[in-house]
Amino acid sequence: MLKLTGVNKDLRGFCIKDISFTVEDGDYFILLGPSGAGKSILLETIAGLLRSDSGTIELGGREITKLPIQQRKVGLVFQDHAIFPHMKVRKNLAYAQHGLPHEEIKNKIAGLSSKLGIEDLLERYPSSLSGGELQRVALARTMIQEPEILLLDEPLSSMDSQLKTEIRALLRQIHRAGQTIMHVTHDYEEALSLGNRIAVMDHGSILQSGTPDEVFHHPRNGFVAHFIGIRNFIPARIIMYGGLPFAETPGGMKIRLGSVQENLKGFVMIRGEDIVLSAAALDSSASNVFEGKVEEIIATPNGFDICVNAGEKLHALITGISRNKLGIKEGIQIWLNFKATAVKFIEE
Q: At 96, is the secondary structure helix, strand, or coil?
């Protein structure tokens, strides 16, 4: 188990502040945030390349805060792989095991290279390897040291989609075999596809942590919501109308909510996939029905993001089939339908 408590590091112009979280044994822990959030600095602090100014870092029940990197039992895979270019792959792996008996090193290289599918690469130089092959070698060179936790710094950032799919599958395989992993990324789709725990970081601070369901379906603030792709995040205040709670927005929309206290200020959040579009108001259980004008249509990997102005700009996610069936194009009038239970109110 990796445990950080109140970790701070000031780098004269940027600092990580009061970082506390736990990575349990067997976790695939994702540290998610935009460029410049401090993710790599935190990773290097955990690894021992940087020394924290205050706070404690524990691994496996022992404090490692002041230990040098070689005594921490962590494995750090850099974004640029950091493979020795003048050594063949086999020697790169053996170098990490300097001091062990030759036969033991040979057996460890054979077992790990088979596990990671790099047997055919052992006698090649790094300059002859593809990006995916280099990533496998970088993982092997780190894993041969048998770290308690594997730290990955943006391991998929420079890969095309096909290669990303291949390396994701490899990382899942490594995790299923029992390796605890902490993975830094700015890609929320990557976070969803790999992590069982996620922490969102910005400006040197952890803003929220939890399971993917907790973070992606129940973001605590506007930054988290926008960063993970929830576009319907609107300022509002609670009013009572006919004894029922509504969120009134600056644009004059009154959005029906579930049970909530009166006189609160905050934000309403609605996931795009929870909004149903229709050519006319639906006779359904949806308690929020609004008419608006289609202002923008944006293609996404899973269909289309339809931006509708109904007093506030709301984004609905629909399939290509639904778009064609409804004849949706910019400038037409369309109806939005969503349930009160689909609306989350976050207090300011």
A: coil
